[in-house]
């Protein structure tokens, strides 16, 4: 009888796969984001983006888009850049922090499908986590979030050579 041994995934792939599966719970029409909290090799919590519990989400009530303007340096010149954000949705990272204990976050890692925005990065930087691992870049805030994590000493890394599980791929608007 021939023995077949499955290829065992590395820990980064394993936890990012879980984050992507968690993201399938999101009803956001713009982006499905999942996050997981890990201490050592132990999974301590999961969360995804969406409206507060008991409140109609964007698929039911539409997105609540807020326009913000921010000064950025583009090709050595200051430019005013318009950013649009949905303010109905609680981000996956925010939900993760709301539903996990500070003691569990101390020295832990967060795996998130998308690079955190500025607000989430601030919250994570102050939450006790020592590492944030993400897959998809979030260009709107990337440079300043990277600088913040460097200043805080939080390991901040992308999984560039990662492919999400097929069943977690959701067409996004």
List the strand order in the largest sheet.
Answer: 2-1-5-6-7
The shape, in one word, is: globular
The SS-based structural class is alpha/beta
Spell out the helices and strands N to C. HEEHEEHHEHEHE
Estimate what percentage of residues fall within beta strands: 25-35%
In total, the number of strands is 7
Say what oligomer this is. single chain
Q: What's the gyration radius in Å?
A: 17 Å
Uncertain ranges: none
The biggest sheet amounts to: 5 strands, mixed
* Helix run count: 6
Q: Helicity range of the residues?
A: 25-40%
Whole-number average pLDDT? 90
First and last CA, distance: 49 Å
Domain CMP/dCMP-type deaminase: 10-156
Pfam family, one: dCMP_cyt_deam_1
Cofactor: Zn(2+)
Binding site for Zn(2+): 91, 117, 120
Structural features:
7 strands, two-stranded antiparallel sheet, globular, alpha/beta, 27% helix, 6 helices, 173 residues
How are the SSEs placed, and which strands pair?
Blueprint: H1 11-23, E1 34-39, E2 42-48, H2 58-61, E3 65-74, E4 77-86, H3 92-98, H4 102-105, E5 109-114, H5 118-125, E6 131-136, H6 142-152, E7 155-158
Parallel strand pairs: 5-6, 6-7
Antiparallel strand pairs: 1-2, 1-5, 3-4
Helix pairs in contact: 5-6
Explained architecture:
By secondary structure, this protein is an alpha/beta fold. Helices cover 27% and strands 28% of the residues. The chain is built from six helices and seven strands. A five-stranded mixed sheet has the order 2-1-5-6-7, sandwiched between helices. The mean pLDDT is 90.
């Amino acid at each position: 009888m021939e023995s077949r041994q499955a290829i065992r995934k590395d820990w980064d792939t394993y936890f990012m796969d879980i984050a992507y599966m968690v993201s399938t719970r999101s009803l956001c029409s713009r982006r499905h984001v999942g996050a997981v909290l890990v201490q050592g090799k132990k999974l301590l919590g999961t969360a995804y983006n969406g409206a507060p519990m008991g409140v109609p989400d964007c698929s039911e009530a539409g997105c609540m888009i807020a326009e913000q303007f921010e000064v950025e340096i583009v090709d050595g010149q200051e430019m005013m850049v318009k950013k649009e954000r949905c303010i109905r949705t609680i981000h996956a990272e925010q939900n993760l922090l709301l539903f996990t204990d500070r003691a569990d976050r101390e020295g832990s890692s967060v795996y998130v499908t998308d690079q955190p925005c500025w607000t989430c990065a601030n919250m994570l930087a102050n939450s006790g986590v020592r590492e944030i691992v993400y897959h998809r870049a979030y260009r709107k805030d990337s440079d300043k979030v990277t600088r913040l994590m460097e200043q805080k000493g939080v390991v901040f890394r992308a999984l560039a050579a990662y492919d999400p599980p097929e069943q977690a791929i959701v067409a996004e608007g």
